[in-house]
Amino acid sequence: MYTKTLFALFAGAVLVGCGSTKNVSNDLATSLPIETSINLSSIIDDKAPVTINPGRFTTQTVTYRLPRVIQGTYSVSDFGKYVDDFKAFDYNGNEMAVNKVDTNTWTIDNAKQLDKITYLVNDTYDIEVDGGIGKDTPFSPAGTNLEPNNYVLNLHGFIGYFDSLKNNQYKLDVIAAADFKRTSALQNVNSQISEDGKTMTTSYFAPRYFDITDNPMMYGNLDVEEFQVGDIKIVLSVYSPNNVHSAKSLKDVVYKMMQAQKTYLGDINATPRYDIYLYLSEGKEDSPKGFGALEHHTSTVVVLPESMDAAAIAASMTDVVSHEFFHIVTPLSVHSEDVHYFDYNNPTFSKHLWMYEGVTEYFATLFQVDQGLVDEAEFYIKIMEKIEGSKRLNDAMSFTIMSENILKAPYKDEYLNVYQKGALIGMCIDILMREESNGNRGILSLMKELSNKYGKDKPFEDDKLISEITAMTYPSVGEFLNTHVVGDIPINYNTFFNKVGLEIGESQIKANYILLNGAPIVSGDPTKGIFFVDSVLENSFWKEQGAQPNDIIKSIDGTEVTLQNANQVLGQVFGWTPGLDVEVVLDRDGEEVIIKTTTTQGYTAGKALIEKSNATAAQKSLRQAWLKG
C-alpha cells in the first residue's frame, strides 16, 4: 500500500472553451484527450472551480464519478462529498438536468448534447477532524489544500472520470498566480501567461486517469531543491508556513537517505525522477493532523508537524520517505490484478498486503542498518517495537483474509498491523532464505526475481503468488507463508532469531516521551481532557519529574492541550529528543504543577532483542549476511 501513519496515538467559475467536434468511437471520441481545468486564481468561498470537457458522446446517458477509494489508502475517502454546485451544460450553453446517484456519482441524460461539466471543490486540510485513515476526512497526505500561499493538489480530489473511459488521455490546465512556484511530475506540455501578466496557465498531459491520480502537484510559495542521486532526479518541494524548515536544510538528509536506498536496491529498475512534496503543519485548528505519507509510483506526499526540530524531522523523513520510495519495488514492479485494474468506486483488494506494505516497511527498516545509517542496537529496537506493536493487534488473524477484506470490520481495525507484523513476515522470509542459501539469497533477491518476471505492466494472479514464491525459493518459505500468512498461527519469533544468534530477553530500554512499549502513557476523557495513566511511572524521565497518574495535562510549551488538538501537540512530544527545554503545566486535584526542565533520555523495563553471548560462528555468519546483505 501507499500510506504510512506516523502517529497513531488515539483510536479515538472560470469555464474553459468547449464544444469542439471530435471523431466518434464507441461512446466517446478517443483521438483527443479529455480536457480538464482547475482554476486556483478564482477561488470561491475556499473552493476551486473545475471544468471537464469530455468531447462528444454517442450514448444517451453518461456517468461521472470522483473516487470513493484511492489506491494505497485502504479506506473510504469519498472525494465526491467535497464537490458543490455540480452543473452540466449543453452546446448552446443551457444547463442540463443532473441526477446525483450517490456521494461520488452523477449521471446525465441526453448526453449527446453534453458540452461540459463544472463544479466547485472544497479542500480537506482545514476541515479535518483527526486526519486518521478511514475517518471523516481523508488521510492528510491523500487530502487537498487551498490557501493563499499553498495548494496541495492531490488530483484525485479535483478530477473525476467517466465510467469505462479511465483509459482515455487527459489534458489538465492549472490556472494560478504567475509568481507561484509549481512542481509536478506530470508531463508539462505548455505554459502561457495571461495578458495582464497576473496568472499563468500550465498545461499537463496524462496518458490515462490513473496518471491523474498518481501525480500530485504542489503550487504556491514553495522552497524547491533539485539534485541527482545516481541516475534519479530528486525534486524536493517544501512548504513551511513559518519558514522553520526548508528544502535546503533537508537536502542533505534526503540525499544521504536516497543514496543509501539506491545502493541497497542495486540493479532494480528505478524511476528517472522522484518528487517529494513536504507540507509542514502549523498546528492550528484548521491545519492537517494526519502525519505520515502517501506513496505514488514516482512521488510521495508527506505531512509532518512544523514544530519538529531538525533531528526529529530528519529521522521522520528517513523512516517515512524511505518506506514510500521502496514502493517502486512493490506495487510498482510487483502487483496483482486488483492493483493493476483498480476500481476507484468499488475496488477489490489483493490478499498480499504483507508484501505491498509489510515487505516495503521491512526494506525501509533493514536498509538503514545495511547501509550504516543506524547501528545494530537501533535496528534491534525497531524490530522489538514492531513485535510489541503486533501483539496489541490481532495476532491470530489470517493476513491474506484481512488484506482481501480490509474495508470491512473487523479487518479494517487491524490495518496498522501491515506495518508491524507485515514487516516481521518479511524479516522471517529473509532469514529463512539466508539460511537456505548459505547467506547468498534474501527477500530483496526474491523481489528482484519477481520484478523481472512481472514488472509494472504485467500483474500476477493473486491466488497463485504464494505457490510461485515457493517454487522460486524453498519449501520452508512456502510452509511459513501457508502457516503464518494464509493461516492464522502466530509466529514464534525466537525460532527465527535463534538462527542468527539473537534472543528476546528482559532489559532496560529507551522510552519515548509519550509512548511506552508502543502504547501511549496518556488517555483522554471529555470531562477531564488529556491525562497521564499509570504507566507514566514506568517512564524514568516522567517519574524523575514527579509526574503522577491522573495528572491532567493543561499545556505543553505554552500550547493548551485539548481533545481536539491532542494528536497534534502530543505528536510534537513524540518527536522530543534529549536536550530540549520544555515546560509542562499539570492539574493535580485542582492544583497547578509546573514541570520546567531539560529533557533527558528516559528508560523503562521491557523486552529487548539481544545478541547471545554463546552464539556460534555459523549463527554470527548468518546474522552478518542478514544485516549486511
Approximate strand percentage? 25-35%
Task: Calculate the terminal CA-CA distance, rounded to whole Å.
Answer: 25 Å
Strand order, sheet with most strands: 6-5-9-3-2-13-16-15
Tell me, what's the shape? Answer: globular
How can the largest sheet be summarized? Answer: 8 strands, mixed
Q: How many strands appear in the DSSP assignment? A: 32
- Uncertain regions: pLDDT < 50 for 5+ in a row? 1-30
State the helicity in percent bands. 25-40%
Gyration radius from CA atoms, angstroms: 25 Å
Mean pLDDT: 91
Class based on secondary structure composition and strand pairing: alpha+beta
Q: List the total number of helices.
A: 15
Explained architecture:
- This protein is α+β, with helices and mostly antiparallel strands and 629 residues long.
- Helix content is 26%, strand content 28%.
- The strands form eight sheets. The chain has an eight-stranded mixed β-sheet. A six-stranded mixed β-sheet has the order 1-21-22-20-19-18.
- The chain is globular, with a radius of gyration of 25 Å.
- The model is unreliable at 1-30 (pLDDT under 50).
Please write out the topology.
Elements: E1 3-5, E2 34-39, E3 47-53, E4 62-65, E5 83-90, E6 95-96, E7 99-102, E8 105-108, E9 114-122, E10 145-147, E11 150-153, E12 161-162, E13 170-177, E14 181-184, E15 187-193, E16 199-206, H1 209-213, E17 217-220, E18 223-229, E19 232-239, H2 247-265, E20 273-281, E21 292-296, E22 299-305, H3 310-325, H4 337-340, H5 353-370, H6 376-391, H7 399-404, H8 421-436, H9 443-453, H10 465-472, H11 475-486, H12 493-499, E23 502-511, E24 515-516, E25 519-520, E26 522-525, E27 529-532, H13 540-544, E28 552-556, E29 559-560, H14 566-574, E30 581-588, E31 591-598, E32 602-611, H15 617-628
Parallel strand pairs: 2-13, 19-20, 20-22
Antiparallel strand pairs: 1-21, 2-3, 3-9, 4-8, 4-12, 5-6, 5-9, 7-8, 10-11, 11-17, 13-16, 14-17, 15-16, 18-19, 21-22, 23-32, 24-25, 26-27, 28-29, 28-30, 30-31
